[in-house]
Amino acid sequence: MMKRIVIITMVFLFVATAVLAETVTVITKENTIREYNKFFSPVKAYVKYNDKLEVLSINGDWYKVKFGPSIGYIHKTAVEKRTASSPGLFSRKGSGVSESEAALAGKGFNPQVEASYKSKHPEMKFYLVDNIERFIVPDREVTVFIANGGLVQP
Amino acid sequence: MMKRSVAFLFALLLLCSLSGCETMGLGNISQHIGTAMTVVDATSKASRPISDEEEYYVGRAVAAKILGSYQLSNDRELTRYVNLIGRTVALHSDKPFTHGGYHFAVLETNEINAFACPGGTIFITRGMIRTTSNEDELAAVLAHEVVHINKRDGVAAIKSARWTQALTVIGTTAAKNYSPAEVGQLVSLFEGSIDDIFKTLVVNGYSRSQEYAADEGALQLLAKSGYNPGALDSFLKRLAQQGKASGGGILKTHPGTSDRIENISGKAPSGKTSTKAIEARTARFVSIVH
Fold first, then answer.
1. More confident residue, B107 or A105
2. Is B61 on the interface with A (CB under 8 A)?
């Protein structure tokens, strides 16, 4: 009987610990988990908006996170904790968005509203905005540009 | 008795583990026991600032509106160059990531101007680029705009009454999809918000304090990035000379240039830049811009 209690309690503890592990949510359309806490370190995994990441530790402006089988770093401004808990550990510095606000993700001015606005204003050149957003300068070009110009790697 | 004690101990341990998690935030508990919607309902009725995602959609529409008044440049080499400088500076800012990322584009006009759309799209005019004399000065202009985005100055231009009204519509439902009537209301408020920001960016300009803060932030960003912070001062002095002749543009929407120069006086962080690095940056600037 005692053995049973011990096993059940331990299993329960294990499950509770797993469930209660801290998670953060990706708030950028897409982002990367890096091998080190540096912007241009090798990419371990690609993440997208609303992906949930398990936080293992905090290293300055970077969170060490687990996403699926990948463990690596993501910058604090790319994630948010979506709960109504008290602000603190996971609040984003320099952001006007609180944790509870982020719980409203997808609400308000969203793709549905933009689509309706577009149909009401066909003269608006959203296709050019899409072109601007598609113009991506690869990381490797940025690193070469920084190095060649004697600038500081972030 | 022994059995009871063991059970009690484990129960206590479990309780401790739960309360320990409280200090890390209760968010996951609510997520896992399915009360997330309650949280959403409760918070949606409260006053809140615009979210990053909403800022992104507003910014896209503001950018589209600006592109109704100005012609987008097809100069890919110049656009790439401006993006390289802009991204370098943005990565050193307080907010290196926005929902949709930073994007820099050139407008084909002689008007001397630059616009920071909420969310991260930054426009710089050909006239403004011509007014800069080197890469460091061009970086100073872009850094100023990045700071406007970091500080969310664009969305701050939305009239508070309009946003309060939007929150009322947003707060009536927990669903992400709205009814046609609600969409109609939100689109009208979205439209009004875009007009508020467009008027501020293109017609009235930000407040004097917002502009001064953007200049001061730009000094820090330049220094962090390895650019010469003194480039902002030299650019503003040239702007004061050239701007007198051109009129309009940035001079119409920004505080007096001499006031801006005075504001940043003595505030530039000291930094050393090697002559070789300056020569390399000047060479690439000349080859692309002139």
1. B107
2. yes
* Residue located via tokens 């998670």: A23
Is B258 at the interface with chain A, CB within 8 A? no
Between chain A and chain B, how many beta carbons pairs sit less than 8 Å apart?
A: 254
Correct CATH for A2-105 of 2.60.40.10, 1.20.1250.20, 1.10.10.10, 2.30.30.40: 2.30.30.40
- Chain A residues within an 8 Å CB radius of B276: 150
Q: Which two tokens stand for residue B244?
A: 């007198």
- The CA distance from B194 to B264, in Å, is 31
Kindly state whether B290 is in contact with chain A, defined as any CB-CB distance less than 8 angstroms. Answer: no
The CA distance from B290 to B288, in Å, is 6
Phi, psi for B176 (deg, rounded to 5): -85, -20
CA within 13 Å, CB half, A10: 7
Q: State the DSSP H helix or E strand holding residue A52, giving kind and residue range, or none if neither.
A: strand A52-59
Per-residue b/e over B187-214, b at no fewer than 16 CB within 10 Å? bbbbbbbbbbbbebbbeebbeeebbbbb
Output the pTM of the full model: 0.81
Domains of chain A: which residue ranges? Answer: 2-105, 108-154
Residue linked to tokens 């059940």: A8
Tell me the chain B residues in contact with residue A25 when contact means C-beta distances shorter than 8 Å: none
Nearest to B95 among A94, A132, A137 (CB): A94
Residue of B nearest to A106 (CA): B176
Amino acid at B48: R
Phi, psi of B247 (to 5 degrees): 65, 180
| ipTM attached to this prediction | 0.81
Q: Which two tokens stand for residue A39?
A: 């912007």
- Would you state the structure tokens that stand for residue A43, as one six-digit string? 């990419």
Own/partner contacts of B19-25, CB < 8 Å, gap of 24 or more, are B21/A20, B24/A22, B24/A89, B25/A22, B25/A81, B25/A83, B25/A85, B25/A86, B25/A88, B25/A89, B25/A90, B25/A99
- Averaged pLDDT for residues A32-60: 96
| pLDDT, tens digit, 9 for 90 and up, residues B49-105 | 888 999 999 999 999 999 999 999 999 999 999 999 999 999 999 999 999 999 999
Q: Which two tokens stand for residue B276?
A: 């070789």
Residue of A nearest to B191 (CA): A117
Residue-level length of chain A: 154
Residues 6+ apart with CB under 8 A from B138: B82, B85, B129, B132, B285, B289
Say if B205 is an interface residue toward chain A (CB within 8 Å): no
